[in-house]
Write a structure and sequence with these properties.
The protein has 201 residues and is mainly alpha-helical. It is built from six helices and five strands, in the order H-E-E-E-H-H-H-E-E-H-H.
Length: 201
């Protein structure tokens, strides 16, 4: 079961986590002395060995569902995981991977990557939120106003990807940058649940 917390309770839990990490020399270190974020408190950590950055939240059920969806995509095609690391590293090096400073969040970047990989020819990833099977019918799963349903049957989802895309991760990474270099952000709404072009209002 998922536990919903008040904003103050979540912030208190995360602050305690950061305080505890600052007193130890474990695998993770605290990047901030307190939880940041106005709408959703976030504790920023870094894995000492790999230097990977981690955002940790408490009581954020929607974030849990979003993470479960990302895990499903990594299980469908390992190239998504490799490309995700590459895109996030590029964005971090370019200084455009911090939503608190007005740039893109890691989740937004991964959404862009998923959208691109769903629109390659042939596609690398399926549209899990549109798929269903007799064993896994589409059932609304609301978290607040958001429907978090997706087809969790990875093997069934893989079967929709015929013919298979055989491009290398390197080729797809180049394609990612080419795709968004000419992407009309002013006219097209980018969202995992909206697949057709529409005029922004």
């Amino acid at each position: 079961a998922h536990l919903a917390l008040t904003m103050s309770a979540a912030r208190s839990i995360l602050s305690s986590l950061l305080k505890g990490l600052s007193k130890t020399n474990g695998p993770f270190k605290a990047m901030e002395h307190k939880a940041v974020g106005k709408r959703c408190p976030v504790a920023r950590l870094q894995h000492r060995k790999t230097l990977l950055l981690v955002d940790c939240t408490a009581g954020n059920i929607l974030a849990v569902k979003n993470t479960e969806l990302l895990v499903a995509y990594t299980q469908i095609d390992t190239r998504f995981l490799k490309l995700g690391f590459a895109v996030k590293q590029w964005a971090s090096s370019a200084g455009i991977n911090d939503a608190s400073k007005g740039s893109l969040s890691s989740y937004a970047l991964l959404n862009m990557l998923i959208f691109y990989l769903q629109n390659t020819s042939p596609p690398v990833l399926p549209r899990l939120q549109q798929l269903s099977t007799p064993a896994h019918p589409k059932v609304e799963n609301l978290v607040g106003p958001w429907d978090t349903y997706y087809l969790s049957d990875v093997e069934a989802a893989k079967q929709t990807l015929e013919p298979a895309n055989t491009e290398t991760a390197a080729e797809l990474l180049i394609g990612f940058f080419d795709y968004y270099a000419s992407f009309d952000f002013n006219r097209v709404i980018e969202a995992l649940r909206i697949w057709e072009e529409c005029v922004c209002v």
